[in-house]
Amino acid sequence: MKITILRGDITLLDVDVIVNAANRSLLGGGGVDGAIHRAAGPQLLDECLKIRKERYVQGLPTGSAVITIGFNLSTKYIIHTVGPIFGKDDVILLKDCYHNSLRLAEENDCETIAFPSISTGTYGVPITQAVKIVKKVLEDFTSKSIKEVLLIMYSEEDLKVYQETFNQQHL
What we know:
Number of helices: 5
Number of strands: 6
Strand order of the largest sheet: 1-6-5-2-4-3
CATH architecture: 3-Layer(aba) Sandwich
Structural class: alpha/beta
Radius of gyration: 15 Å
Oligomer: single chain
Low-confidence stretches: none
Shape: globular
Mean pLDDT: 95
CATH class: Alpha Beta
Number of domains: 1
Strand content: 15-25%
């Protein structure tokens, strides 16, 4: 799998699947979650309400992932995963977010998947801790369909930490 690290807007990417750093409610919120819900349109909220009603009445558990179509986005699918809250949840659950998202992408024959930096914003997981978990998951995951993983950063500071950890040249 090729790994590409970029700074940008995940909602503008033309990939098979983007990952949404969702909250347990799946009903949108701030940050990446809110941006994806706004860009995908109101049908995404309707689909998430259906998932809540039929499968996750108490909300999507931390580390779990579900998939929806992309609606108004260029992407075929959106994978929604709930990251851990630093100081409240076990940070190792971040590994599950990435692994379960990759597994869903694989099950849906996706070749390209884009991740935001899950749990490093409002949820407070230190970026240096998160990126080590992400790197380990990507090194350990074997895929038949996924050709490229894009790691999309919001800030220049996060971009540099990811590039240094993955030993990629600063672009």
